[in-house]
Write a structure and sequence with these properties.
alpha+beta, globular, Naphthalene 1,2-dioxygenase Alpha Subunit, Chain A, domain 1, 23% strand, 185 residues, 5 helices, 6-stranded antiparallel sheet
Length: 185
């Protein structure tokens, strides 16, 4: 991706852009449906609800795998999103785990690796289709990467002036604060 790794983290840490940029995601999970439960330090994030007619974030909206073993019923309608400092984006779904690893190449380029984890027992289940989740996130990631690259162009402009974060950007401010503490050491 032609953007700084910190812009990737910022994009991942808020979803007020989701209704405009991610129609598939917005259909499955309302962008204002969640709550942050980790908002200070090296682990930041929280959850968002799935709309009641969707079982997971997949192209079909259905579970593509067995539910994660031991997951309480009360958690099957949530997706958890966390940043693990410095370079992991972790998404916990009812039926799979997805994580991105960010590797800075330069101040304006990041190599991103996205991986999925499924219950090992699912490989023997008829109809198991991991591609349903992979295709969903391929579309969503590409949308984010385009926005990230446009953001990189914007912050690289001589006309760019930073502004304070809004209330919907509390995780972005928390990430910046933690980052600044570490680089000042």
């Amino acid at each position: 991706m032609q953007a700084n790794w910190k812009l990737v983290v910022q994009n991942y840490s808020e979803c007020y852009h989701c209704p405009l940029i991610h129609p598939e995601l917005a259909k499955c999970s309302p962008y204002r449906s969640g709550q942050n439960d980790l908002f200070e330090g090296p682990f930041l994030g929280g959850y968002m609800h799935l709309n009641h007619e969707f079982g997971s974030l997949t192209m079909s909206g259905r579970l593509c795998s067995l539910p994660i073993s031991g997951l309480p019923e009360s958690e099957t309608a949530r997706v958890y999103y966390y940043t693990l400092f410095p370079n992991i984006l972790l998404s916990l779904h009812p039926d799979y785990v997805m994580y991105h690893t960010l590797w800075p190449v330069s101040p304006s380029e990041t190599h991103i690796i996205c991986e999925w984890l499924f219950d090992p027992a699912v490989s023997h289940v008829p109809g198991f289709d991991p591609d349903d989740a992979l295709r969903f996130w391929d579309v969503t990631n590409r949308q984010d990467w385009q926005v990230g690259e446009l953001s990189q162009l914007g912050v690289s402009s001589k006309m760019y002036t930073p502004s304070p974060y809004g209330t919907a950007e509390s995780l972005l401010a928390a990430f910046d604060s933690y980052y600044l503490i570490l680089i000042e050491r």
